[in-house]
Design brief:
136 residues; mainly alpha; 6 helices
């Protein structure tokens, strides 16, 4: 549904999953891969609807758990960190977003390389944010 742009419908369906009922409050719900993946989709659906605060909480919970399970420099952890940076950018929390982007980009370059799709996409989002900041 999210690929079809039906973010509100995806959110409704994902909220039926008991594991995601309190996803914005409890990191304990993110213990298995399937739940973390579903939380990631829910956070994306929320972001696409402009519900940045709730999406941010879910992503941060997901990031904390993934960091603990996979490690801070695992590609999955870094992908989620890039999502948190994007969420901060969307909320116009530029200082925090800039710190997150710089840290994540450095790790991405070391772990997956400068030519990876994720690194390029994260760098593009960061550059876009820097341009927004310059125009303020």
């Amino acid at each position: 549904l999210t690929l079809d742009g039906k973010h509100a419908e995806a959110e409704k369906l994902l909220r039926f999953a008991p594991e995601l009922k309190d996803a914005a409050k409890e990191a304990q719900y993110f213990q298995d891969d399937a739940t973390r993946d579903a939380a990631d989709v829910l956070a994306s659906a929320l972001m696409m609807q402009g519900k940045y605060d709730e999406a941010d909480k879910i992503m941060r919970n997901n990031l904390a758990t993934t960091t603990r399970i996979r490690g801070p420099e695992h590609p999955e952890t870094l992908r989620i960190a890039a999502g948190v940076a994007l969420s901060l950018k969307k909320q116009k929390k530029y200082a925090e977003a800039e710190r997150m982007y710089r840290k994540t980009l450095l790790a991405l370059q070391q772990v997956v390389g400068e030519t990876s799709k994720l690194t390029k996409h994260t760098a593009s989002n960061f550059e876009e944010m820097l341009q927004e900041m310059r125009s303020l």
